[in-house]
Design a protein that fits this description.
This protein is α+β, with helices and mostly antiparallel strands. The protein has helices spanning 14-25, 46-51, 70-80, 93-122, 130-150, 165-179, 188-197, 201-204, 209-213, and strands at 5-10, 32-36, 59-62, 65-66. Helices cover 51% and strands 8% of the residues. It binds glutathione.
């Protein structure tokens, strides 16, 4: 039981979901956790700010060691609990190189996705520029095509035959794309990857609760 760990998280946030998947993969159930509501501004509460001065989720600590950055937390958990649960960093140099490459490229995918989704959320309708919307969508389309190509290589996982940290950190972004109705027919490899991992225990048990309650929007339908 991981009673010496605390995770403050928000539903539907890819960074939060990454940490939850890593905790499950490392058999670290039973940690202290609190689900906070972004729409009520709970990520700016005193409790979060004390742990994470940016007021962002996830906020995570093990004992007194704070690792709020989701990639950092996943890498920390793998490093500290190497022989527990599933091994998430392959020994084989070619697979390890691919794993780090895909992991960090995942940040670009996430950013390009956020550029499209948050522009529409944050910029009021009358102030939006069609050219910016178009440019962001084109950039995301180029990026998504790249991931579709990657999945044509030896799989079934992002770094090869084994589930790794690359899957832990990138899967939530890929799931987010489909939540916003990325077309499964246009990206069959990505869709197959997304669907095949839905029932993996670490992913299923940590599936964003708000996603079970409502449909996502169609924002990425034409990407
Ligand atoms: N680099 C951080 C990013 C965390 C992050 O951006 N969290 C978002 C939710 S997905 C958040 O808390 N946003 C609220 C805010 O920035 O005020 C990580 O990977 O952990």
């Amino acid at each position: 039981m991981a009673k010496d760990m605390t995770l403050l998280w928000g539903s539907g946030s890819p960074p939060c979901w990454r940490v939850m998947i890593a905790l499950e993969e490392k058999n670290l159930q039973g940690y202290n956790q609190k689900l906070l509501d972004f729409s009520k501004g709970e990520h700016k509460s005193k409790e979060v700010m004390a742990m994470n001065p940016r007021g962002q989720l996830p906020s995570f600590k093990h004992k007194d060691y704070v690792v709020n950055e989701s990639y950092g937390a996943c890498m920390y958990l793998e490093s500290q609990f190497k022989s527990q649960g599933n091994k998430l960093i392959p020994d084989c140099p070619s697979e390890q190189a691919k794993m780090y490459q895909r992991m960090f490229e995942g940040l670009t995918l996430n950013q390009k996705m956020a550029d499209v989704i948050y522009y529409t959320w944050k910029v009021p309708e009358g102030e939006r520029h069609d050219s910016a919307v178009k440019r962001n969508k084109e950039a995301l389309t180029t990026e998504v095509k790249l991931w579709e190509e990657y999945l044509k290589g030896p799989g079934p996982f992002l770094a090869g035959k084994d589930f790794s940290l690359a899957d832990v950190v990138v899967y939530p972004s890929i799931a987010y794309l489909f939540r916003f109705q990325l077309c499964e027919e246009r990206y069959p490899k990505l869709a197959a990857y997304y669907n095949s991992l839905k029932n993996r225990p670490s992913i299923k048990v940590s599936w964003p609760p708000t996603w079970l309650e409502s449909e996502g929007s169609e924002m990425l339908k034409d990407v």
